[in-house]
Amino acid sequence: MDVFNVTDRDGNKVLDASTISYIQKTLEADDWCYPEARNTVGIVPSEDYTSIELTGTDRPGLLSEVCAVLAAMGCAVQSAELWTHNTLVAAVVHVTDADTGGAIEDAARIADISARLGNLLRGQSDVRAGAGSLALHKERRLHQMMFDDRGVGVGAGGHAAGAPANSDGPPRTEVSVTPCAERGYTAVVVRCWDRPKLLFDTMCTITDMEYVVHHGTVSAEPGGGAYQEYYIRHVDGHAVRCDDERQRLVRCLEAAIERRTAEGLELEVRTGDRAGLLSDITRIFRENGLTIRRAEISSLGGEAVDTFYLSDPQGLPVEAKTIEAIRAQIGEATLRVKNNPFAAGDGAARKDADVAGAGTTAFIFGNLFKFYRPFQSFSLIKL
Question: For the chain, what is the radius of gyration of the CA atoms?
Fold first, then answer.
């Protein structure tokens, strides 16, 4: 039995009947599971669009060059999502034919697009290109694509597991893995700042590492923190068996949590969609010396809504004059600064960002294991 106490993004009780019905029908359906991970990068068409997957070593201007190649080959980007972490980049891009508006189905053309993107990426990074079966959920697929030793290690915050908490609030990301030999489990405790989709990111990585959660509790904490505790076994029935496995689990969970929380200037571009729009926007970012840390691209009803998280190539703040230059080139009416964590002091900016996202993903499964202690009433739990 899994019990979830949820709110909407604004922290309000969910009362909309259609939303409740959608959740219930989706969870009760038999076909909502996603395919297993594939170790390839490639292109595959669907009825409405063609999906393109790219992974490789990140570098400044990479997304701009990819968008330029797609535009030159007559591809219109309908939606996309891009993540970066450490030196790894992964992207899932949905494109259509710029002339017909439908999916690109011609096998020769798909092979040509794949080859050109492969050549572009292989010139700068370690990338493999080929056909593969793509999951429909972009974020789920991105987790699978970034589940690679190149994308884990010391988190973006620059500290290892077990680092002390920040003096002004909960820890950035703190993961502990403790054996429970008497019960045959491994206890995993994660403390970090609360944010949307935190539980999703954690569970994707635990699943991709082939662990099974037998018991757990997740809750929001005062001050904008989040507490997660899980009791896991590997699918083969064993607990974590060695220190190398424990350290890898810590690194992967840190990476899964921190790669979505790309720090930097958050810009939203909202304008009428047209062919080559994304290529033009990313070119402007590149020409102004900015690096895209994360991107969310969407197009609906003829309107493009694109969100970018930007910094300079060294990860430093974007200067005000650079923002004004971008605004002048893109257009003030279509560009909005949604969040600039460097506009004020680090503590104030971080606090504002966390208040805005507090309570959006937290759920409470009792208080069963809120504080680590032996299983005093373990015999009463039947899952």
Answer: 22
Residue 145, SS3 per DSSP = helix
Angle at 117 between CA 111 and CA 120, to 5 degrees: 140
Q: 324 in helix, strand or coil?
A: helix
Residue 324 has pLDDT above 50, yes or no: yes
Distance CA 26, CA 48 (A): 22
Which class for 294: exposed (0-12), middle (13-18), buried (19 or more C-beta within 10 A)? buried
Q: In the β-sheet with 291-300, what is the strand arrangement from edge to edge?
A: 43-45, 50-57, 88-97, 75-85, 291-300, 303-311, 265-272, 335-339
Structure tokens at 269: 């571009």
| Cα dihedral sign, 117-122-125-129 | positive
Q: What is residue 213's three-state secondary structure?
A: strand
* 3 state DSSP class of 18: helix
What does DSSP say about strands 211-221 and 265-272: parallel, antiparallel, or unpaired? Answer: unpaired
Do β-strands 50-57 and 43-45 pair in parallel, antiparallel, or remain unpaired?
antiparallel
The helix/strand/coil state of 20 is helix
How much is the pTM? 0.72
Q: Which token pair is 79? A: 């939606």
The 10s digit of each residue's pLDDT in 167-180 is 454 457 899 999 98
C-beta contacts of 31-34 below 8 A and 24+ residues apart: 34/135, 34/136, 34/137, 34/140, 34/141
269 Cβ contact partners less than 8 Å away, ≥ 6 residues apart: 281, 304, 305, 306, 307, 308, 330, 334, 335, 336
Structural contact between residues 277 and 304, judged by C-beta atoms closer than 8 angstroms: yes
How many Cα atoms sit within 13 Å of 181 on the Cβ side? Answer: 2
